[in-house]
Structure formats: C-alpha cells, structure tokens
C-alpha cells in the first residue's frame, strides 16, 4: 500500500527556477509566524521565550549550524502583537541584519547567557539578559502576564524570576503551532524524504559481505550532504546478531552473508527532517527473517490504513502488538519500536503514537499533520529482526506516504 491518494506529493529540485512554482520561502516565513502568534494568543501567556533551535527557526527563519544545538546560547522572544526579537551568537546577529530582511534589523541582537555554565553566573550575563527581557515585556504591555519558556538552563529561569517574571511552560504552545504543516512545509518534507530514497539506493548497492556498519554510515553521510542536507543527525546501521534487541546505534560490525540489517536515516533539508527505516537482507534470506518482515509490514499497513482526519491515536496504537507479545516486559521497555511521531523541524513532534501513552491520552488526527509510523519484529532465530518506517501526510482522504524506497517485501541486496 502506498497511499490513499493517486496524487504524488511534489519533491522538486533544490534550485529556484522561473518555470515552476516550488517552495515559497516568504510564504513559509509568514505561515510559521502566523501559526505561532495564533497559538500564543490562544494561551494564557504574554510572550514566548525560545531557546530550542527548532522553535527559533520556526519563529525567525534563522539557522547558524548544528554546532549550536546543544549550547543553549541563542534565544528569541515573541510577545503578543509583536515581532520576533532574536539574540544570536556574536557576529551572526550582524549577518542576519544584512541577509534576513524579513527580520527588523533592530531586532537582530548579539546575546550570550553563559554557554551552559562555562561563563559562571557571577559574571552577570544571565542577570543582564533577564533585565533586558523584562524591559521588553514591559514595553510590549505584557509584563503582568506569564512568560512561556520552551527549554532553558535552571540559572536562566532563576534570573528571570529574580527580575520579577513569572515563568511557565511554553513548549506546548510551540508544539500547538507546529503540528499542522503548510503546503510549503509538506513539500520540504517530501524533498527531504526523496533524498533518503536516493541514500537507500546507495545502501542497496554497497551492502555486501566485507563492508562494516560504520562504512555504510559514512557513505550515507556523503550522499546526503552531496544532495544538500543541512544536518545528517544520525544513521542507525544495525546488522546480524545486533538486530535483536535493537541497540539504536551503529557499530564497526562486519557485514556477513545472510545478515538481516536495518537502517534509520535521520537528516534535514532546510530544517525539515526524516525518520526513515528500511530492512535489507544480504545476499539471501531465511524463512524466519522473511516471516519477521511480513509481520512488521502487516503491522505498519494496518496503522496506515487507519490514518485520516478525525481518527484518534489510540485507535492506531491498538493495532500494534503488546510489548509482551514480541519479547519485552513492559511498554516502557518496548517504547519506540511500535511507534509513531510527528515530523517537522524536529524529529519528534505531535502526535506521539504508542501503547505507552496513546491508549489513555489519545490525540485526534487533523489534515496537514505529518508523522512517521514504525514497526519492529524480532525473528524466530533469536537474533534477526525487521524494522520498517513510513512517513505519512494526513490528507482529507487518508494517508499519503512520502517514503518511496521499496518496502512491500523484504529487499535482498545483491542476491546470490
């Protein structure tokens, strides 16, 4: 099963051209900011302060590289009725003033709050930032309202509280904003998936006895960066006896004849991510390996068949086996194996679908959601396993699958 629609979602080339309408980035900037403003207005918050790089990109359409993701040094403020203000790393602020005309130049500022404590709080950077933020909240007329913060160091929260700012959770507001994708976002997600289609073709060509898992990871990184990826976040490469239980990390294991091997490619194009598993066998496959794949395919197809607006996530989670049915003691231990998760600027957005959380706290599906569905089935031989993942767009008529590398049957690479 490929989709509930006969219309293939576009995955155009990366160049801007005068003969086709592709992604309209000005429209994308406007859509994302309008969604964030609407979510803020619907909340009880006066403003949002974002340190999460995905939220900063959503609000400001700026990005300075993956190296900054764990530094918690960039931040952006959006007040009710206001324009976003961005504090960026040193000279990046000046760069934005020159090259990001959708942001007011006076709102592109240099800022730094300590690089995760490397500059001690006693240096005063946190207090200075908190005072500046409190002043901007007052200027915007929202000083008496709570400030929503997505992620932050505890010392930053303490400094805001010392400055008289009431801090609440802002991540849920940003997740509300981000869960329905525009046509431009869906096109970028489709383009990102198309890049991984090509990466799997390369894996199919090189997956032979004698190559190591880490060498395949290197090949995939090169293919994707050559195609224009801005972040290859991870490539899981898992083979042979490492397949069961799933270790969620690659190694230097040498690929051998008859191995079952699965891969997950997590990367981003213009910020929009993939999570895309495929399972291969190397040269030949046993009945136990084929049976595991068949069951994993049946479980994922059952889930895809249910996807449409109005369905709730507990309905999908119930078609997957209980943890005990495939060798785990609890749903917590099996979490992430029979699984669904929203995709966008982050790897895990709404909805999150699993038996761990969805049965008691279901979420309704809406047109414009994009998420990945993934299943896992250990083989009867005790060490092989099959892993399949499809990315789907919720359309008015059902699920549109955008991950197109062949997966209806177990793919035997380089058969002999």
Strands in their spatial order, largest beta sheet: 4-3-2-1-5-6
Distance between the ends: 28 Å
CATH homologous superfamily placement of the largest domain: Creatinase/methionine aminopeptidase superfamily
* Shape designation: globular
Low-pLDDT stretches? 1-6
The domain tally reads 2
- Please tally the β strands and state the result: 16
Structural class given helices, strands, pairing?
alpha+beta
Helix segment tally = 10
Gross CATH architecture of the largest domain: Alpha-Beta Complex
| Percent strand | 15-25%
Q: Strand-and-helix sequence, N→C? A: HEHEEHEHEHEHHHEEEEHHEEEEEE
CATH class of the largest domain: Alpha Beta
CATH topology of the largest domain: Creatine Amidinohydrolase
Mean pLDDT: 96
Could you explain the architecture of this structure?
With 416 residues, the chain is an alpha+beta fold. It folds into 2 domains: 25-178, Creatinase/prolidase N-terminal domain (Creatine Amidinohydrolase, Chain A, domain 1), CATH 3.40.350; 183-413, Creatine Amidinohydrolase (Alpha-Beta Complex), CATH 3.90.230. 31% of the residues lie in helices and 21% in strands. Helix 4 crosses helix 5 and helix 7 (183-206) packs across helix 8. The two termini are 28 Å apart. Residues 1-6 have low confidence and may be disordered.
Secondary structure elements and their pairing?
Layout: H1 25-42, E1 47-50, H2 53-60, E2 75-79, E3 85-88, H3 92-99, E4 108-110, H4 125-139, E5 147-149, H5 154-162, E6 167-169, H6 171-178, H7 183-206, H8 213-227, E7 231-239, E8 260-269, E9 272-273, E10 276-282, H9 287-306, H10 313-317, E11 339-342, E12 349-353, E13 370-378, E14 385-395, E15 398-401, E16 411-413
Parallel strand pairs: 1-5, 3-4, 5-6, 10-16
Antiparallel strand pairs: 1-2, 2-3, 7-8, 8-9, 8-10, 11-12, 11-13, 13-14, 14-15
Helix pairs in contact: 1-6, 4-5, 7-8
